[in-house]
Amino acid sequence: MNMEECEKLxxxxxxxxxxxxFFYLIEPLFNEYEILSLELGRGTIFWRARVIDxxxxxxxxxxxxxxxxxxxxxxxxxxxxxFFYISADMETALAEVNPADGQLVQLAGFKIKNDAPLAVAVxxxxxxxxxxxxxxxxxxxxxxxxSKILNQLPRKEALKKIYIDRFFAHVLRDPEASTNxxxxxxxxxxxxxxxxxxxxxxxxxxxxRGGFNLGIKSEPSDECFHNVSCAIVKVHxxxxxxLIDYEIVNSxxxxxxxxxxxxxxxxxxxxxxxxxMNKDExxxxxxxxSKKVYYSGEIDSCDSN
Length: 305
Fold this sequence. Notes:
The protein is an alpha+beta fold. Helix content is 29%, strand content 24%. The protein has helices spanning 3-13, 19-26, 90-97, 126-132, 145-151, 155-173, 183-196, 218-224, 279-286, and strands at residues 36-40, 46-52, 83-87, 104-112, 118-122, 200-204, 212-217, 225-238, 244-251, 254-255, 261-262, 272-274, 293-295. The strands form four sheets. It has a five-stranded mixed sheet with strand order 1-5-6-7-3. A four-stranded antiparallel sheet has the order 2-4-8-9. Strands 10-11 form a two-stranded antiparallel sheet. It starts with a helix and ends in a 10-residue tail after the last strand. Residues 298-305 have low confidence and may be disordered.
């Protein structure tokens, strides 16, 4: 299959009338395309946001995925099948919930447990590595995986993989996907996960250029993630070119035995509290001078899991 044939197939696929037809039409592309997969361990804090319309959300369950009976079709998930959607940074999570100027947003931060690595298929990174030498999602090309795939191929074959990857990324991040009930993005998700056996997919953000989101199946997300931070932010203004001007106005100290957030009596402005981290992880967080991060409990009580 050459690139012209790929292009014709792309056009036919996005004119298809059902998920089944789309799934069938894109099947030949996987003979030309290698699905990237990463095993994520404990490291980055991933973020999930909810706009506050009244009182703040008291419990971590309020910032989890919704129960199956109220789950509608989403970008990656079918109706009644919840996915845990999170973002690779706080700014992307904010952009995804599209807050109004002056609105409060609650963000929960999650880390992967040491003993529960997460297998994630990654879409939209071939061209980033070709241009910059690293993935935007993780800030590097682990073991030079993508570089090796592309460099060992003739130029046209490498371009074909990049072209298919860009098409798949377009399908997953299409801002108009809701108009057809996410027909194509859900079908592509099914095609990738059935071939890759991953726990979820990392894909480019719809609303934050350069940002990445993850959609994780509910059961693996329950096993792999635990909460390490919660912040209340006030959005001052959504500026031009995708910039959100915001400040942190409160940050939880920890979770109690019922998983309710415990808030400080006095809050240090613009600081971010973290908990359930071991000493090395906390020191890694505070090593960035741009962050005002503090451990909101006794440092010796940091959880190593």
